[in-house]
Amino acid sequence: MANQVTLQVQGMTCGNCVKSVKNGLSALSGVEKVNVQLETGNVDIEFNESQIDIKQITNTIENKGYTVGTKI
Ligand SMILES: [Cu+2]
User: I need a surface site. Which of 13, 25, 31, 59 has the fewest CB within 10 A?
Assistant: First the structure.
């Protein structure tokens, strides 16, 4: 079942940060679509909840050195 979530990510400052988050999430099996907005820090993610959960997605972002705020 496809699910959609928008996470508020803090600490992204440039295009490389965007790429790092986008590529890191896209590499996870179960993640279908990732859209990162640098200006707002919003990260829109479409994922298959039978394969991956938000906790794993959040951990992946945090392991790259960014902070995940309240989910919208
Ligand atoms: Cu950067």
Answer: 13
Q: What are the structural domain ranges in the chain?
A: 2-68
- CA 4 to ligand 1 centroid distance, Å: 25
Cα of 16 vs centre of ligand 1, distance in Å, is 4
CA of 29 to the centre of ligand 1 (A): 24
Quick check: pTM over 0.85? yes
pLDDT at position 1: 67
Distance 49 CA to ligand 1 centre (A): 29
- Output the 3-class SS for the chain: CEEEEEEEEECCCCHHHHHHHHHHHHCCCCEEEEEECCCCCEEEEEEECCCCCHHHHHHHHHHCCCEECCCC
For residue 10, is pLDDT > 80?
yes
